[in-house]
Design brief:
Blueprint (H helix, E strand, L loop, with lengths): L4 E3 L14 H11 L6 E4 L11 H14 L5 E5 L5 H13 L4 E5 L10 H14 L4 E5 L1 H4 L5 H7 L5 E6 L4 H10 L6 E4 L5 H6 L4 E3 L7 H12 L3 H21 L1 H11 L16 H13 L4
Parallel strand pairs: 1-8, 2-3, 3-4, 4-5, 5-6, 6-7, 7-8
Helix pairs in contact: 1-2, 3-4, 4-6, 6-7, 9-10, 10-11, 11-12
GO molecular function: 4-hydroxy-tetrahydrodipicolinate synthase activity
Organism: Candidatus Scalindua japonica
Family: Belongs to the DapA family.
Length: 295
């Protein structure tokens, strides 16, 4: 399976009582289906999956599966702290229709998460999983980095098909691409700020928060790059910087949801303990998108 293009890391809408609003999730996906996104990441970091029960997670996967057409790939975040629990949950997600398991690095006992520990963890999962595995490196949340050496070593397993690297480190991304050049291994950036330079060094696409609000602009960078129109691709990339910072490092998931509301998607409130952005912060986010020419 070739993982390429833009994948929004789908947020989880909640109703006024804090329950998952499945109808709103369906409406968001149906609207994204009309864009050029290649698929979706369900239960990623931006879905607030760490706040969902297992039952809620599986219901979200089922709802997404009903709304996602066969032409688009459904990635599902199935990584948990223990190897055994990850294997069990990956099987359940696959049974609910997930096409690919995206597995975050276990990190609670981070001082023990060595190269050898990662190798044992991911190889055991990949051996048993009925669906392909995509590695997920996100140091901003885990305070732990999967280096190029480990990603390269894991790439030789036939059921490990790629990595989502959200380190924002283009040097590391380029090293992973170089070391896995002989493998059928897809490297995707998790940073919208680095999408264009990542494509230039061989990345196959990106899984980026801002694609939940303006998917057409993210897909546009890939289209312009493939057309050889590097000047416009670079210009569009530069326009994405301010909004990307606003919905990731500055305001996080609450800011992303606010941005989605601005563009007519169902963003809504985050789940506690995340607090919603203030009215003043919403205006700042709106100004950021307006200054970039997206609103």
């Amino acid at each position: 399976m070739k993982i390429e293009g833009v994948f929004p890391p789908v947020t989880t809408p909640f109703d006024d009582n804090g329950c998952v609003a499945h109808n709103q999730l369906e409406e968001n996906i149906n609207r994204w289906n009309d864009t050029d996104v290649a698929g979706y990441l369900i239960l990623g970091s931006n879905s607030e999956s760490v706040f969902l029960t297992e039952e809620e997670k599986l219901e979200v996967v089922k709802t997404a599966r009903k709304s996602i057409p066969p032409s688009k790939i459904m990635l599902a975040g199935t990584g948990l702290e223990s190897t055994e629990n990850t294997i069990e949950f990956t099987k359940k997600a696959a049974d609910c229709g997930a096409d690919v398991a995206v597995i975050i690095t276990p990190h609670f006992f981070k001082s023990n998460m060595s190269h050898d520990a990662f190798m044992k963890h991911y190889l055991m999962i990949a051996d048993i999983s009925h669906i392909p595995v995509l590695l997920y490196n996100v140091p901003a949340f885990t305070s732990l980095n999967m280096g190029a050496r480990t990603a390269s070593a894991l790439s030789s397993h036939e059921n490990i098909i790629g990595i989502k690297d959200s380190s924002g480190n283009v040097e590391q991304l380029s090293e992973i691409i170089s070391l896995t050049a002989e493998e059928e291994f897809c490297v995707l950036t998790g940073s919208s700020i680095a999408l264009y330079p990542s494509l230039c060094i061989g990345a196959s696409g990106g899984i980026m928060a801002i694609a939940c609000a303006i998917p057409e602009k993210c897909s546009g960078i890939i289209r312009l790059y493939k057309e050889g129109n590097h000047t416009e691709a670079k210009e569009l990339q530069l326009r994405l910087i301010g909004p990307s910072i606003a919905v990731t490092s500055l305001y996080g998931v609450p800011g992303l949801k606010a941005a989605m509301d601005l563009f007519g998607y169902h963003g809504g409130l985050p789940r506690l303990p995340l607090l919603p952005v203030t009215e003043r912060e919403i205006n700042t986010i709106k100004d950021t998108f307006m200054n970039a020419g997206f609103l």
